[in-house]
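Dear colleague,

Thank you for sharing your sequence with our group. We've completed the structure prediction you requested, and as agreed, I am returning the results in plain text so they can be pasted directly into your records. Please verify that the sequence below matches your submission; if there's any discrepancy, let me know and we will rerun it promptly.
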Amino acid sequence: MARVRPVRGLRYGSLIRDKSLVVAPPYDVISRADQIKLHARHPKNIVWIDYGMERGGRTEEKYERAGATLEMFIAEEILVQDEKPSFYYYEQEFQLEGMGTLVRKGFICGLLLEKFGEGKVFPHERTLLSPKVDRLSLMQNTRTATSPIFGIYDDDENVVPVLFREMTERIDPDVAVIDDVGVTHRMWVVCDERLVGDVEGVLEQKNIFIADGHHRYETALAYRDWMRERAGSDRDSAWNYVLIFLSASGDDGLVILPTHRGVYGLKQDTVDSLIEKLKACFSVQRIEGSVEDMVKEVSEAKEQSHRFGLVDGRGACYLLTVEDPDTIEAKNLSSLPKAEKNLDVSLLHGIILEKILAIGPEEIASGDKVKFYKDVKIGLRDLETKDIQFLFYLNPLTMQQFIEVSESGVILPQKSTYFYPKILTGLVLFPVGENDRVG
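Please find the predicted structure tokens below.
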């Protein structure tokens, strides 16, 4: 069963009046320029702990500084630990073009760690060693989980959000900030024992699907094993848990956006022959209108068939449609599990990138010959400047596809999902030292 518990979070206290100055995006989406900007924004910004600057010298110095900075923030009462174990109900209000204003709802808690494939927690993404080494060094030096990962549990009826809203709808949030991209974040500290017990009971029967934070989840497992060697095994020890934001699968603010692909470094004969080669597997239709017309055509087809958009270096737009999915999948993707064959991203990677363009998985993972775009406008700009030769426009996975694939144990191609918006770092930290326990 999935075991969630309230935690005694470590949070910015009353000495920091404007919390927007001290929070930050997750470390893995912060550019070098943003890292510098966040350090300059406030001397107590969470990046001084979570994503410190490199200064040369020993690699370990960055993590040692993070530990010392955390201790200083606690000693100065910049960061204050909550007295009671709590859940942290969290809303994110944001706008998306064509969808209006949305509110994603969920709560931050501790989730009992278990290895993938041995319980109720399911991944969908392959991890790399380097980020896990980085995050483990940070945890070992701070004895703290500095940011929550993001998980989804299967609840189309939204039972838990209703429970939280009944308690919090007449109460001002404990924290309310607007981030740099205009998303409003609101968080309430909830320590009511009856509500905590009700939420724990609901989640016991649920599967948990990791949306964002696979590296940090596996890091938490490694840290747990490291702590067990030093402190023994106690189920309620905080280091047996990972800090996680959980949202219900049926939440109307839960959005998966696509990540588009740009291809570069191709030989000219490959560029010249691509359209003809695509006709062997796809119906290829030239769009005489604008890129916006192509996007509209692709979006309208997402419930009917596999369809991609393609823009070449001259700005010509094409629709690529799979007319006979079963035959195409059988000929080109026979080695893939059924749940993965039926995804647009699998067809794009397995047929177009790997078979037609001969771009292997290692080249894709390393960023050699393939770029990824959350904003299609940036991809179009790179086409104009000749930084890429083709841009492939994708529809997003549906929530049903995401859950089916995760439950099947399939590991998806890189950057198959983009959950928006990101969970802020700095709202809640989770102490996981030798004497820390969950509620």
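Summary note from our side: The mean pLDDT is 92.

Kind regards,
the structure core
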